[in-house]
Amino acid sequence: MRKGFTLIEVLVSLVILSMIAVISSNILQSSLETEFNSSERLHSARKLNFSSITLRRDIRQIINVPLRDFYGNQIKGTFIGNNIDNKIAFNTKIKSISNEISPIKRVEYVFEENNLVRKQFYSSNPYDAEEFIKSVLIEEVSEIDIRFLHEKIWYQEWPVDPITQRKIPELIKLEFTKNNKEYTWIIEPNFDYVFKY
Asked: Can you give the residue ranges of every domain in the chain?
């Protein structure tokens, strides 16, 4: 008698090996998908964190001086915000490379095409509405709501009255939805100075 494997034994071995290969490939694919999803979430969280830092920095470095429109006319307000247009505008201090250039720049945050966009103009009173540095801070935002706190009441627009035309809101609240997740950012400008004409 010769020793060896029967055809049935070989087929059973092949079936067992193929089952092990299928299970291993499924586990590997699942772990790769999990790693990819984790990386995507981490990347998204980092971008949101950077956006939050940028917005908070701009608001905490606000310069409380009257704004002007693009024709040089004074706007009634040192900080302009509107929940209907989903826009805020103010002057803030931004470091310049040269000491000959004023560090005070106009900054606007606008909701455009489902993105939260930051526009930084080259001066505090720009005359050209199209000359700015644009950066998309948050992409694929489905809803956004901006509110301004004054004397314990949240308002949809700023300024609220003639007195608040010379003030910065006590708090600024930004609520938005991204990828079916709701976010709320509340920013305190740390600013109690009232502009005096």
From this structure: 64-187
